[in-house]
UniProtKB/TrEMBL annotation, chains A, B:
The enzyme's E.C. designation: 2.8.3.10, 4.1.3.6
PANTHER family per the UniProt record, alphabetical: CITRATE LYASE ALPHA CHAIN
KW Translocase (keyword) present: no
A Pfam family matched in the record: CitF
Transmembrane parts of this sequence: none
SUPFAM superfamilies the record matches: NagB/RpiA/CoA transferase-like (SSF100950)
Annotated gene: citF
One term of GO molecular function: citrate CoA-transferase activity
Name of protein: Citrate lyase subunit alpha
Presence of keyword Transferase: yes
Keyword terms of this UniProt record: Lyase, Transferase
Species this protein is from: Variovorax humicola
Tree of life domain: Bacteria
NCBIfam families given in the database record: citF
Organismal lineage: Bacteria, Pseudomonadati, Pseudomonadota, Betaproteobacteria, Burkholderiales
InterPro entries: Citrate_lyase_asu, NagB/RpiA_transferase-like
Length: 443, 443
């Protein structure tokens, strides 16, 4: 439930009051709203965390070394894999349920906090030793259509509120209107158009950032002009993908969680708008994840380095401010994994010598698009040729790096870090591919 | 796919040709169409069978002792439970898929052999070591809505035909028009009306037999008159339940498999018509099966005895001619488990001293309805009082027994049986509650 979630805080408040200590939290993500968790860490209530994304006070506290053990940063698919493999054993899953009935059938499409498919919770509900539906809306039995069914749910708990809809759905996300970002988006769409993938059966995913949404709109136009019918759009679904479904540009949507109310509404009434669990979405060890069927994936970046490694986990200060989510999963799965980013941000260069933390290995990234043009991974020779024939400005990533330095107001020094490891980066298959070190308390 | 299935025969033909021997078959049911299995038993290709229902040549052969090991007769819910518990390990699940795509997404709603939800196969697909989708219809990727998803499917095999739609769907099932059966149906409906359960939220399941369908129609009328809105109808769904959904008499349907094309069509387009796996349907060891939420369940019987035990597994000859399916599951789960049957059939009494084989223990049965009236289980005192107040003819089951004998053209002797056990009756929780013995070859 992202930054609107009130379930985690309520559960931990009770756990703390009951004197529970040494708990391990395996939330799919942690947001600024989860600030009370900092005190629970300080008091020894929580001693271990694994998650696919963290930002806000908890991320800051972990970066400063408050948690006695390293946080395990997973991918969405890797988290599902770990749960299914038994590596990550969930003792109790507390599932924020926008609506539930007396037997534990859960729907994400109804209730005050309706948020669409409960893709991340589906895996927990299937594998956890005990499953508790926490809801603020009890509907008549049976609540259909069902997202998580009564056969998986042990308890239903009614609370005043499970969350703030304004924080659950990002809602106000709009395509960028900034000219430089629009130029980047247009170039990214041209890369897709030139890739040879934009034919009938095309499949596509983007994040919900401003550049991503602008790319969607350029791709929408291109599909319309070429009379291409795509097979599916996937994601974190926004109203922009819904528009493309309804226009017939995609035959279906796979949705692990909705990003806005228009997506929730579409999920509620359109059977082509299909829920997917985090496992179906991105688990590399099941018998075929949707992410592995993607043609084009549009990715963001906090930093990209000369080896095309991408960091969306830590900032230039070395502090944790995000995490993979599905970044590494979709990059690995998609035929065309495209990073779209400005050269500089907040005064600092985003193309760097070597990323502070590897979220997604460069081997998964096909090309990086900036306002300067497109840098293609050295092994993607055929793609490079296609882009050149299409007339795109293809350049070396080191040229982007130089330009980024030139544009930057300051070239930051490598952040001061302690030796202590405060986080491990777990790739989707369970390998540790990097670590995160403590940042100094002063920073 | 019932008596239209061609997948089992095709798979075993290949297995036999490749020289495989000593196989164990865990089909959800076996029908006359599966006659070739008899030769596979004779040749040692198949040495063990477990199933929830068997009729036709295979059942005859097993009854005569052809199989070297006793057949394990399960319930639908018990089969799901055994698979989930790891008692019944499925090495390879061959799933008859009316439609599939290249990645293994399966839909029961499309294709030439469209049959609706694949409730029984869902459990196998989730737990089998390998899952093979066998289909005669490959659709564009992705095939949505999905019944069994690509994350569970290892292989997709295209064959000329997976089955005969005429045998897959019973299709021509109609409510009885026979006056005696109609009278029984009317009485059964009155029992439901008198039970106190026919109020808002009412839930209901019947089989697809002629008496059952006639009861549905009487119940439909009663719900209309009382302005009752039921919560759900369940089953094996027929067009008659669909009518009640569409009339607003039920808010939803839970469907493990469709019995006719009208039900398939409803499943395809109405999100209130919800698929349920065999586990959600009837597994007693999950966290809440639908069968356990039933108000009224209408059951058939080959024999009922003085202890209310019901046999739907063997005939008066002692030969296997059916099986529990969901009989024992729904009888145990429903608040009102009602057996509706004529006193005699084929010249013999159906109310007997002691059933030849216990499919459903009498403790699960609340009342038996025949053309004579209603016999109520001794422990259901409150129900008995309600029926008497309602003016129904309540009588002792021994009176029904006497009348059945009087009506019967012949009172059959206990069938001649050998000592050898050819089948064990496994209750839904895994207990063996009865055995089936060999019938003489002469019979």
């Amino acid at each position: 439930m992202r930054n609107g979630d009130q379930v985690l805080n309520q559960v931990l408040a009770v756990a703390s009051a009951r004197g529970l200590r040494d708990l391990r939290i395996a939330a799919s993500s942690l947001f600024p709203v989860h600030a009370p968790l900092v005190d629970h860490i300080r008091n020894g209530v929580v001693t271990r965390i694994c998650t696919a994304y963290m930002s806000g006070p908890v991320a800051d506290a972990v970066s400063r070394g408050l948690l006695p053990t390293p946080v395990v940063m997973q991918t969405h698919g890797g988290r599902a894999r770990a749960i299914e493999a038994g590596e990550l054993q969930i003792d109790v899953a507390f599932v924020g349920a926008p609506a539930a009935d007396r037997c534990g059938n859960i729907s994400g499409a109804e209730g005050r906090a309706a948020c669409g498919p409960l893709g991340y919770a589906m895996v927990d509900a299937q594998y956890a030793r005990r499953v508790v539906a926490v809801t603020d809306h009890i509907g008549d039995y049976p609540l259909v259509p069902i997202d998580i069914s009564q056969e998986q749910v042990d308890f239903v708990v009614l609370v005043d509120s499970i969350g703030d809809p304004a924080g659950i759905l990002s809602g106000s996300t709009r395509p960028t209107t900034d000219p430089v970002s629009l130029q980047i988006a247009e170039t990214a769409a041209k890369v897709i158009a030139a890739s040879g993938l934009l034919v009938d059966g095309f499949s596509f995913q983007t994040g919900a950032g401003g550049i991503s949404l602008a790319v969607s709109q350029y791709v929408q136009t291109a599909m319309r002009e070429r009379k291409v019918q795509g097979s599916f759009g996937a994601g974190g679904v926004t109203g922009y993908l819904v528009d493309m479904l309804e226009e017939g540009l995609f035959r279906s949507l796979f949705d692990v969680q909705c990003f806005d109310l228009r997506a929730v509404e579409s999920y509620r009434r359109d059977s082509r708008h299909q829920a997917m669990s985090a496992s179906l979405y991105a688990n590399p060890h099941n018998r075929g994840a949707i992410a592995d069927q993607l043609d084009a994936m549009l990715l963001g970046a906090a930093e990209v380095d000369l080896d095309f490694n991408v960091n969306v986990t830590t900032g230039s200060s070395g502090r944790i401010l995000g995490g993979s989510g599905g970044h590494a999963d979709t990059a690995a799965g998609a035929k065309l994994a495209l990073v779209a980013t400005r050269l500089v941000s907040g005064g600092g260069p985003k193309i760097v010598e070597s990323v502070g933390c590897i979220t997604t290995p460069g081997e998964s990234i096909d090309a990086v698009v900036t306002e300067l043009g497109v840098a293609v991974h050295a092994e993607r020779v055929e793609l490079r040729d296609r882009l050149l024939r299409y007339g795109l400005n293809v350049l070396d990533i080191s040229v982007m790096r130089s330009k980024a330095i030139a544009l930057a107001q300051e070239v930051r020094a490598t952040p001061e870090q302690g030796r202590r490891i405060v986080g491990v980066m777990e790739y989707r298959d369970g390998r540790v591919i990097d670590v995160i070190r403590e940042v100094s308390h002063a920073r």
